[in-house]
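REVIEWER CHECKLIST
Item 1: Sequence provided? yes
Item 2: Single chain? yes
Item 3: Sequence as submitted:
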Amino acid sequence: MLAILIVNYKDEDRTIAYVKDELSKIHSPHLIVVVNNSATDESNYVLAAKLNATLISDIHQKPEASGCYVISSNDNLGFAKGNNLGAEFAMKHFSITHILFTNNDIHFLNNNVVERLVEKLDTLDTVGMIGPKVKGLDGRNQSPEPYSSFWNRYIWMYWLTPFLSSDKKKEMFKLDYPQDAKEGEHYKIMGSFFIVKAQDFITCGMMDPNTFLYAEEVILTERLKKIHKTAYYFPQVAVLHEHGQTINQHFQTARSMKIQFDSESYYYHSYKGVSSFSISIGKISLNLYIKLKSHFKSILSL
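Item 4: Structure as written out by the authors:
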C-alpha cells in the first residue's frame, strides 16, 4: 500500500483542497497522513472534519480504520521531523510498500502520475526515490538539480558577483534547474513531490531530523547512496508546483534565507565534508549580502 504524507503548517484550507481535488485522482490503494504542525484544537477539528479523517494524538496507539489520518503535533517539527513522524505512524500500523512525500501546493498534470511513478520505481532495483517533472508557475522545470559546491553556492556567488542578476548568478554557478534534463538517475530531485520505497527509507535511516525546511531531499539522496540506491527523474509524468507558498506566507525573505543556510550548511558539513571554517565564511557572506540588499532597498524606496 502507498502512504501519502503531507506536512501542514497553518494552511488547513490549502491542505484540504489538495486532498480533495488532487489526491482523489489516485486510484491505487493508499492512505493519507497529514502531520499538523503547531496544531491547535481548532485546526485539528477542521482538518479531521473536512477530510473525514481520524485524529491521532499518540502514533503508537492502534488507530481506527480510516483512509485518512491527522497527526496532531503541538510543536512545529519542520519538514523532516514531520515526515518522519508520519512515516513512523504509517509503517507501524499498516503494510506500506511505498511513501509519497508531497507539499500541499501541487497540481497533477497527469491523472495517473502517482501510479506511473510507482510502476517505474518498482522496475529499478538500484533506485530508492523517484520524482516526476515538476513545473513552476513560470513554466520552468524545478527538477532535477545538479550538485553545487558550498563555495559556489554561498561564497563566490555573493563575493564575486554582487552586481549580477539572480538569473546570471544561477547560470554562472550552475545553480539553476536544467530545462532539458533527460530521464534517468540524477543527484537531486525536487522535494515537493517524490516517492520512495518504504523499505529503503527505513534502511537508510529516514530523513535527517537536524534540518527544518531545506536540504531534506538532497540529504536523503546521500543517505540512500550509503545503501547503494540512487534518485531517479521520470519526466514522462508531471506536476505543477506553486513553489514557496508556505515560506512566503509565514517567513520574511531574510529569515527564510537564514533558515535555508542553516539546513544547507548542516548538509554540506555533515554529508560533504565542508569545514567549519568554510561554513563560517559562508555565513558572513550571507549576512553581508542580506544587509547590503536591505540597505539598497531602503535607498530605492526613498
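Item 5: Key structural point noted by reviewer: The domain at 2-144+181-245 is CATH 3.90.550.10 (Spore Coat Polysaccharide Biosynthesis Protein SpsA; Chain A).
Item 6: Recommendation: ____
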